[in-house]
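Researcher: Re-running this chain for the archive, since the previous output was lost when a drive failed. Same request as before.
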Amino acid sequence: MSIIPRPEHPRPDFIRDTFHNLNGTWAFAFDDANRGEAEAWYKPGYDLGGSILVPFCYQSKKSGIGDETIHPYLWYRRSFTVPSDMRGRRVFLRFGAVDFEAKVYVNGLMAGTHRGGYTPFGFDITATCCVKARTTCACGWRTSPIAASPAASSTGKKA
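Model: Regenerated structure tokens:
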């Protein structure tokens, strides 16, 4: 069994008895050409080709990547089984923060979008998750518009 980084509940004031932490290894890909959505990288089974240790950002060596280059589009995917004590209840997928824009898919269906860096958000995924089988969550990220600007791209640093 692998160790989950940062296993504690991120908001102790909101802790619930059915909290299930999804930190750990996720499939991962850089999408510098912004092809992922058009090519349906969000569909279960699409091979993203890499992996990342969440909750660390790809720039951090702790993520297993440590690439400080600016990448305007990213994809993450993780499959999980809804714990038995959560079955028959509403299931929420919550994110502590994403910089800057996220499109979240559950089992190939759009669960929702969020725009705004470093703010928590979540979606009710009860209707799209599988309660007795594997549920696949895929997330397409667009990084900060500042990081994706031509000036930032040409220098390799945020403007």
